[in-house]
User: Fold these one by one.
Assistant:
Number 1:
Amino acid sequence: MTAALKAGRGLELRPLHLRDAKALFPLVEANRERLGRWLPWVDANHSVLDTRAFIVRVRAHARAGIGQSFGLWWKGTLVGTAGFVWIDAANHSAAIGYWLAREAEGHGLMTAAVTALLRHGFRSLKLNRIEIRAGVRNRRSRAIPERLGFRHEGTLRQAERLGGRFVDHAVYGMLAEEWRRR
Ligand SMILES: CC(C)(COP(=O)(O)OP(=O)(O)OC[C@H]1O[C@@H](n2cnc3c(N)ncnc32)[C@H](O)[C@@H]1OP(=O)(O)O)[C@@H](O)C(=O)NCCC(=O)NCCS
């Protein structure tokens, strides 16, 4: 299992552990409405048991090398998650996903977490390409890759079914060579 990643300013990315379910589920519950606007899995997460099942799944993905999910701990409190939602080892490619609790928004925490994931992905995992997909109307999410110098590569039309409608995704990519010379 990967070690924790330090992101500065009291923020640490720790690989999700089963014992985190007790802190993670109430966070999902308290943020259900705003998270559900953009994250389809929220609708299927209704108990600590569901959260445990999610953690079991992401830990299996980490062992198989096809994903890596971290709890975001800010000054010792769990405030969200971030990580590689998939890793395509054959193509040295991965996608980052994330969410934060309302009270942790607006402090630059996710920008710092994604910065740490880029360093980990390009240096330790030897990735060549890292992407972020966000709903075209998800302004706060899109601001993160834009702030970090990702290239906006285009739009995937009706890429995701969310709340009974199809939403377009903005796709952002960063290549290892771009990250090295940033
Ligand atoms: C997407 C999401 C993680 C963004 O959170 P966020 O707090 O806006 O992002 P950051 O942590 O990078 O913080 C940026 C904000 O902190 C401010 N900030 C303060 N210090 C900062 C710093 N040192 N560096 C960068 N930003 C800083 C920025 O100005 C910005 O605030 P503003 O938008 O009011 O100007 C959050 O809105 C969320 O969880 N949304 C719901 C789930 C979701 O949409 N997930 C993504 C699906 S693709």
Number 2:
Amino acid sequence: MPSLFDPIKIGTLRCPNRIWMAPLTRGRGTRDHVPTDLMATYYAQRASAGLIISEATGISVEGSGWPYAGGLWGPEHVAHWKIVTDAVHAAGGRIFAQLWHMGRIVHPSLHGVQPISASATTAPGSAHTYEGKQPYVEARPLDLKEIPRLIGDYVTAARNAIDAGFDGVQLHAANGYLIDQFLRDGSNHRTDAYGGSIENRIRLLREVTEALIATVGAERTAVRLSPNGDSQGVDDSDQAALFPAAAQVLNALGIAFLELREPGPNGTFGKSDRPAVAPLIRKAFSGVLVLNSDYDLARGQAALAAGAADAITYGRKFLANPDLPHRFAEGIALNSDDPKTWYSQGPEGYITYPSASI
Ligand SMILES: Cc1cc2nc3c(=O)[nH]c(=O)nc-3n(C[C@H](O)[C@H](O)[C@H](O)COP(=O)(O)O)c2cc1C
């Protein structure tokens, strides 16, 4: 069985280790969602990850609702992401872009329009906006006629990602955002071909993934899911049936890898009492399977040794330790992350975490 320090191939890309960086929104772009030079420094510092998955990056104005998060719909985004990917590649790294449509989580104060979702539902709680926290508003159900346009937005963003030098794209289908809102029966009450049966609720995930594959190739297309339990009020009555079925569809499409965020009952970024669906997905999906949430070195090695995963993504540990693979290899103590600077602007708590000197 492999170790975290063994290389792994995804498509034609050789990843030198299986210690990957999880997608992390950090809010260091401009108000127009253009990447900044600070972001190039941050990602290049973390180039020793087997693979970096970028922060969630808006595919369109409609899908973007996080202050100062990156976007990928216009030429200015492409030009500035190119500076980031060049810096990562120059430092010897590899980076996929996580493609994001937030659906009902987008607050209208950002772009002045009502958010879209599978159905007319409202997320619980309040949104991060430029004016502070504001309660979510009710989404309008996406019209059937709009689906080709939505898929087109994903295609444009994926093409832009490759033009910007990314090594591939990851469809963000996790954490209660748009694709997840379609997947689960708690937020999808549609009665058309995109709602009702599991097959119908998987349809948007399948069609978007197919479109991404047609645009950038299966070897450069990945997907992230968060199967066990509620995310931002999005939940399903039968996760153990839904998610293995989704994984089976993705398996048939031959995607580059599937990443699962599954916190446990003592999770420190989300918690869930529901069992992880990963063991069922491992049976349904024969490609590269990547696990996430609260992993340390020992738990990551154990997951690989048990054949439960092919790689692990580390979120907050990579946030605070730019040289995480080196620290793991040498048994060097880890810096801890400071939640106060997770989403703050500026360099503090972003590019200021030190690498170890040995
Ligand atoms: C500051 C922060 C930002 C995050 N942003 C994203 C994101 O953009 N996309 C995503 O899929 N998950 C995001 N997550 C979730 C992480 O990818 C990961 O699932 C979570 O941190 C648990 O992994 P860890 O225990 O290794 O940190 C974020 C988490 C944190 C702490």
Number 3:
Amino acid sequence: MTDAPNETTEIAVIGAGVVGSSIAYRLARAGHTVTVIAPTELGDGASYGNAGVIADYAVLPVGTPAVLRALPSLLLDPDSPLALRRAAIPALAPWLARFLRQSMPGAARRNARAIATLLAHAAQDWTDLAAEIGAEPLLRRRGVLSLYETPGQRAAAQADLAWRRSHGVQVELLGPHELGQLEPALRTAAEGGAAYFPDTLSVSDPGAVLAHLTAALAAHSVPRILDRAETLRRTREGVEITGPGFRLSASRVVIAAGAHSRPLALAAGDRVPLETERGYHLEWDMPVPPVSRPASPTARGFYLCPMQGRLRVAGTVELGGLDAPPSPHRLTALEDGARAILPDLPTPDRAWMGFRPSVPDSVPVIGPSRAGPDILLAFGHGHLGLTLAPVTARIVEALVTGAAAPVPLAPYLPARF
Ligand SMILES: Cc1cc2nc3c(=O)[nH]c(=O)nc-3n(C[C@H](O)[C@H](O)[C@H](O)COP(=O)(O)OP(=O)(O)OC[C@H]3O[C@@H](n4cnc5c(N)ncnc54)[C@H](O)[C@@H]3O)c2cc1C
């Protein structure tokens, strides 16, 4: 235990990814005294390396009856878009058992409703947040494409699209010719055409968005403790958090450490089945990327993302825990997949792996700890952490101030586990 002197704050936010930073910003803006704890200044976590899509059309949880049917073949192929590291199977077994239950029709429908309720706020909340933190130039309004490489893939996607439409998602179906007019580089890549989500926003640089949030926190004089939070303990005055080089007493704590939140939640009294879906990206430096909006060859599980000065190819899921090194064959599969769509890509300039914070029902964990309202949980956003960070921040602010939350909270509470 550290012998660092005791510092105090009103609200400690643990984690400075897009979720923790958005929460800290929102609370500081509302006049609270906030301290952020995170081991790095800007971060190279999921919030830096993602595909940059404000994915308001992504109402389906990861676990659905269709995924359940395809699961055995997906999991057994190490190069599939959803793979499992064999060494991680024993540790993952309880999570997988819950995931299978959450993929049944009734549970999947309920989870989709909970996700859609949050997604309904994503575009407006990002528009507002970007304006406040000066990140408007990073927000693009060019829509997103789901590519079907064969007519069979397009036919198979119709049930999925109908499900999305039933949640109010706007989608247009494009033939290969129309797709080629919109994105000439994809003219021959998708014989089955594409689904086009015309209203969906994306960001041109998730790392730059984080930098804007960090600058906004500095402008509100929010101090940052550059360290890992390791213990969390209730005291008579509030909650004491310690790490290797600090000791901080807070009246309230928000745990927002992404995929690393599980032990902190456990220390607070909440046993949350949080695991990670590892994801990868490759980047090619180029002044003008070959696509002008994010486009996902759906069967390959990644996005081609135009970013500032580079093309990023990001995605795929590998269930494999937090400790193992990146799997080289996953990066090779990603590179081969990218070249199947854009054959002229040279050797990539850089590679990255990061940790999606994933719960079995794909529904983020937002709300007070079972042990009391002085500890709030805000993690588990899986594939949608960028998309849902601003609405999560509004919910946490409402919980702190006692105001009405923007959505009914029951589906998101930690107590559901
Ligand atoms: C390849 C890929 C593509 C993706 N694409 C998209 C997309 O297009 N759209 C979308 O919405 N989402 C996407 N996601 C998901 C999204 O990136 C994540 O859901 C989101 O970044 C999670 O944010 P976070 O702030 O919860 O966690 P993180 O970004 O992981 O941040 C966690 C923070 O906690 C800190 N931390 C960790 N341990 C401790 C500790 N002990 N003490 C203090 N601090 C700690 C870290 O340093 C970091 O600051 C993608 C993810 C991946 C991997």
